[in-house]
Amino acid sequence: MTALRYPDGHVGHLVTGLQTARSVLADPRFSSLPAGKRSPVKVPGSELSTDALPAGMFVNMDPPEHTRYRRLLSKHFTIRRVRELRPRIQELTDRLLDEMANGDGGPVDLVRAFAKPLPTLVTSELLGLPETDRAEFGRHVDVLFSLSSSGEEMQQSMTTLGGMLHALIAAARKDPGPDILGRLTVETDLNDEELLGITIVLLIAGLETTTNMLALGTYALLRHPEQLAALRADWSLMDDAVEELLRYLSVVQIGPIRVAAEDFLFEGQSIRRGQVVTVSLPAANRDPLGFDDPDTFDIRRGTTRHVAFGSGPHQCMGHHLARLELAIGYESLLRRFPRLELAVPAQEVGTREMMVTYGVLKLPVRW
To answer: Which residue from 9, 84, 87 is spatially nearest to 42, judged by alpha carbons?
Structure first.
């Protein structure tokens, strides 16, 4: 744990080690409540009040409130439930690849043609989002995750998103469907504000990280032809490849962020109440004490010890779903296009430095 000065002058801590990251994320003395949180980089909109956050945004809660919401949602993301989704995810994937194949060998932007539409389709069906509104939902999520957005733009997107989701909740109450939102309106006593917060969390989580992993992961494989060749020679390596891509890429590049709820001694270091602690997931996933030769991309590494989905009680609830989407997405793409390659020099592929979640802006490919 290293001292870190935040943009407003606050002196907190930065965690870069794997084991310390796990310890911080599991320790209830490090709070997830928004009060007192600071970002290690200047984030537009961070000066806006958190008082107006919807009640159900459980990622900004501590137990027992956080536990209550997780318990209500967890049954929708069990391994069994996720496995039941495999045929539908495969169907959606094949549909997108069929459309790509009509491009006569490319070039096409893989982000626009595949990496973004697939998680959008899956998440939309899980939540019951109308097809006509899906593109607009995605645009507002992009604004909320961009470090280039102004505070006003973020507030406007949050307000618009809230309005659209309130209409969706009202429709679900009137005619509940089999999707998660419809089932929550029937099976729980959650009010509209709670449902709004939950839906925002699931929408953002479902769209942002998986989109960037699909595109950036494909880019990484194309940049490491020996690894790609090994995968093509043995598709049973796919699950290991997904885990290594998650570790190696670690697309969540800012946070998680916690605030010390009390004064205490942590791993021999004095922590003061109110001090902010930022956990660097990319650094933890490249910790040489946690992984041999951590800067090498090796799909045969065979480890799930990474913290790409976080750790502890706030570990990403949709990690089983994300893993399934990635495995289906990568394998289907690479099988369909055995000669897939970059359509531009690698140095021309722009990356998302100014976004909370790392990735590529565009990925021109051909086959």
So the answer is: 9
**pLDDT tens digits, 136-180:** 877 787 777 776 677 788 788 888 888 888 999 999 999 999 999
Which residue segment(s) compose the domain that 125 sits in? 78-255+289-366
Q: How confident is the model at residue 52 (pLDDT cuts 50, 70, 90)?
A: low
Query: Is the CB of residue 196 less than 8 Å from the CB of residue 57?
Result: no
Q: What is the value of pTM for the model shown?
A: 0.91
What DSSP assignment string belongs to 176-207? --SSHHHHHHHH----HHHHHHHHHHHHHHHH
Closest to 101 measured CA to CA, from 337, 364, 329: 337
Does a structural domain hold residue 222?
yes
CA–CA distance from 281 to each of 191, 198, 286 (Å)?
Answer: 34, 24, 9
Question: How many CB atoms neighbour CB 229 within 10 A?
Answer: 11
The tally of domains found in the chain comes to: 1
Helix (H, G, I), strand (E, B) or coil at 278: strand
- Token readout for 35 is 């009060």
Q: Is residue 279 part of a domain?
A: no
How far apart, in Å, are the Cα atoms of 219 and each of 205, 222, 341, 362? 21, 5, 9, 10
**Closest CA relative to residue 321, chosen from 197, 209, 222, 231:** 209
Distance CA 138, CA 161 (A): 10
What tens digit of pLDDT does each residue of 66-83 get? Answer: 999 999 999 999 999 999
* 166 within domain boundaries: yes
Is residue 171 one of the residues assigned to a domain?
yes
Q: What is the CATH number of the domain that holds 193?
A: 1.10.630.10
CA distance 308 to 65: 24
Strand partners, 364: 109
User: How much of the chain is helix, strand and coil, in % rounded to 5?
Assistant: 55, 10, 35
- At 299-349, the pLDDT tens digits run 999 888 999 999 999 999 999 999 999 999 999 999 999 999 999 999 999
